[in-house]
Write a structure and sequence with these properties.
Layout lengths: L1 E2 L7 H9 L4 E2 L2 H19 L24 H12 L3 E4 L2 H15 L8 H12 L3 E2 L2 E3 L8 H11 L4 E4 L2 E4 H8 L10 H6 L3 H31 L9 H7 L2 H13 L18 H4 L1 H22 L8 E3 L4 E3 L7 H29 L21 H17 L21 H33 L6 H11 L11 H13 L3 H5 L12
Parallel strand pairs: 1-2
Antiparallel strand pairs: 3-5, 4-6, 6-7, 8-9
Main location: cytoplasm
Catalytic activity: L-histidine = trans-urocanate + NH4(+)
Keywords: Cytoplasm, Histidine metabolism, Lyase
């Protein structure tokens, strides 16, 4: 059971809701602030005050006054007209994240939404009914208007949802789950869609997956070091303390631990004096990517607990202020930064793959082929990795440097944060596939060197990997192997990676 208060949601607790389907509970005291802000909205309507989005139109129509008798019609028109998303739907965990984050924001008591509406959001989460939300169509300012409108449609019984393993009309899912739609009243439609929850939910999923990918990169790189008989001295603690970056020191320490007891690592001057950068600089590069993750986590956890509605209601309605908390610039920057950080993990992984397959750079069989010449082995796997990292370089172009005016220039600067978050997700998937290719090649190289000489940790990792991708004894359709390895990595239990391998040797992947 996860308790939501509007201000205490963390990535760890959100992960439990998104992936473990933890139930939601809201403390009684939180409802008090919700009900006070709702009362303020009702007073504004009753007194016919001119307040944006409550008694006026939206965007460029903010100067058009709306009579109280049209309040409900105004809200439903808003949701229907703004449901302009296109393209493939967001993954279900992202859609679930949108429900969670919008609920948490509205619980802060600045938005004037009735308890009835928020209770339905709770029910959708607890019944695992997830809106079908198209990925494209948001500018990332004025909120994620199009995606959140598709989410809001479900609350009024319209649109489509994912439920019980299939896509269906919302009213069918409600009948099966015993739920009932709501009729939106003054300000409620606007409160549901004026926020950054699409880009932030996508960003939350990105962070969770990127954290796993970054940790897996250390394990896979460690096996590559063994396959290439890399120099362990480059990971000596003193080197990394001398520079001072905490994350760099953590990566070096982790790799020292993973490779403890290995008979395949070498020392400087034993086979060569120095390794290439893609081996020697793993702590510096992987550590820098961890710094990016730290920045992203900080910004996500602020945004996950932020009031991003407009207008916001303060002092029990004494102040109702229009502002711009819906602008997604902080998350746009964070997602663009994440793109670069994860793309670099793929870049250096691809260079390690090249060192594993290129006979001019190692003493392994050319392209790890069982019969060089007659059989190509891993030759085209490296091509695939090169293609993926090249694609990442295009996707890593910052979306946040772009803007385009909308709503007749009333909304004349936008963040493009949702585009940034979507591209970050694609980069993460590409990076995982590159790491999967490195894993396949590293296993081949380690087997050539002698599995019995591997460290206990990498040897256990190797045997787990072999249950997914068998040894290359002859050429086959390697596409299936690469996808199988990537799918396996995606399902890995990240917490097991975090455990001290000296305490839990062998618990690498589930």
């Amino acid at each position: 059971m996860i308790e939501l208060t509007g201000s205490s949601l963390t990535i760890e607790s959100a992960k439990k809701v998104l992936y473990e389907k933890s139930m939601i509970h809201i403390p009684d005291y939180v409802w008090d602030s919700v009900e006070k802000s709702r009362k303020a909205v009702e007073n504004i309507v009753a007194q016919k005050k001119i307040v944006y989005g409550i008694t006026t139109g939206f965007g460029k129509f903010s100067d058009v006054l709306i009579d109280a008798e049209h309040a409900e019609e105004l809200q439903i028109n808003l949701i229907r007209s703004h449901a302009c998303g296109v393209g493939d739907p967001f993954p279900e965990e992202v859609s679930r994240g949108m429900l969670l984050l919008r609920l948490n924001a509205l619980l802060k008591g600045f938005s004037g939404v009735r308890r009835e509406v928020l209770s339905l959001l709770v029910s959708l989460l607890n019944h695992e009914i997830h809106p079908v939300v198209p990925q494209q169509g948001s500018l990332g300012a004025s909120g994620d208007l199009a995606p959140l409108s598709h989410m809001a449609l479900v609350l009024v019984g319209e649109g489509e949802v994912f439920y019980q393993g299939r896509k269906m009309e919302t009213d069918e899912a409600f009948q099966l789950a015993g739920l009932h739609p709501v009729t939106l009243q003054a300000k409620e439609g606007l409160a549901l869609i004026n926020g950054t929850q699409a880009m932030t939910a996508m960003g939350l999923v990105n962070y969770i997956e990127a954290e796993a990918v970054a940790l897996q990169a250390d394990y896979i790189a460690s096996m590559t070091i063994e396959g290439l008989r890399g120099i362990i001295d480059a990971f000596d603690e003193d080197i990394h303390i001398a520079r001072g970056y905490k994350e760099q020191m953590e990566v070096a320490e982790r790799i020292r631990g993973i490779l403890k007891g290995s008979f395949l690592v070498t020392h400087q001057g034993e086979l060569r004096v120095q390794d290439a950068y893609s081996l020697r600089c793993i702590p510096q590069v992987h550590g820098a990517s961890l710094q990016v993750l730290s920045y992203v986590k900080d910004k996500l956890e602020i945004e996950m607990n932020a009031a991003t509605d407009n207008p916001l209601i303060f002092d029990d309605g004494k102040k109702v202020l229009s502002g711009g908390n819906f602008h997604g610039q902080p998350i746009a920057f964070a997602m663009d930064f994440l793109k670069v950080g994860i793309a670099e993990l793929a870049n250096i992984s691809e260079r390690r793959i090249e060192r594993l397959v290129n006979p001019q750079l190692n003493d392994l069989p050319p392209f790890l082929s069982p019969m060089p010449g007659l059989q190509s082995g891993a030759m085209i796997m490296q091509y695939c990795a090169a293609s993926l990292v090249s694609e990442n370089k295009t996707l890593a172009h910052p979306a946040s440097v772009d803007s385009i005016p909308s709503s007749a220039n009333q909304e004349d600067h936008v963040s493009m944060g949702t585009i940034a978050s979507r591209h970050a997700y694609q980069i993460i998937q590409n990076c995982r596939r590159v790491l999967a290719i490195e894993l396949i090649c590293a296993m081949e190289a380690a087997a050539y060197r002698g599995i019995e000489k591997m460290s206990e940790t990498t040897r256990t990792f190797y045997f787990h990997g072999r249950t997914v991708v068998p040894a290359i004894t002859k050429d086959r359709v390697f596409s299936k192997d690469m996808e199988a390895a990537a799918a396996w990595l995606k399902k890995a239990d990240v917490n097991r990676f975090k455990k001290d391998h000296n305490d839990k040797k062998g618990e690498i992947l589930s």
